[in-house]
């Protein structure tokens, strides 16, 4: 039987546009940060996701919108903001998460992906 190092859980609160928690999990020398439903990058305040994600192996970050589709106060982020946060926090892997199943998002997805046929 193998043993592993203890796990560590960290949380940071955010209030943009309403209170939310961001969670970091560390185990066996690796770390994962889950930061969805976040608009922190647009708050004008220090972004709590950056220090929470510092040097993380993986950051799962809200990326519901392209910059032109962003809706302030809806509680979601953009692809560009997620990439900027990942770079500033020096994360190893960025996983973009969330979608808005509307025509705007479907058009965005369609323009980003080509039909392989």
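-> sequence recovered:
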């Amino acid at each position: 039987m193998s043993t592993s190092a203890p796990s560590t859980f960290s949380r940071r609160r955010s209030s943009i546009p309403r209170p939310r928690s961001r969670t970091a999990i560390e185990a066996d020398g690796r770390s994962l940060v889950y930061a969805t439903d976040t608009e922190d990058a647009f708050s004008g305040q220090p972004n709590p996701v950056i220090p929470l994600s510092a040097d993380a192996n993986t950051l799962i970050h809200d990326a519901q919108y392209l910059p032109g589709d962003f809706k302030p106060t809806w509680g979601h982020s953009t692809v560009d903001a997620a990439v900027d946060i990942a770079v500033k926090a020096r994360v190893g892997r960025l996983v973009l998460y969330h979608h808005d199943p509307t025509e705007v998002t479907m058009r965005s997805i369609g323009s980003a992906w080509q039909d392989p046929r």
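The helical segments are 49-53, 79-89, 103-112.
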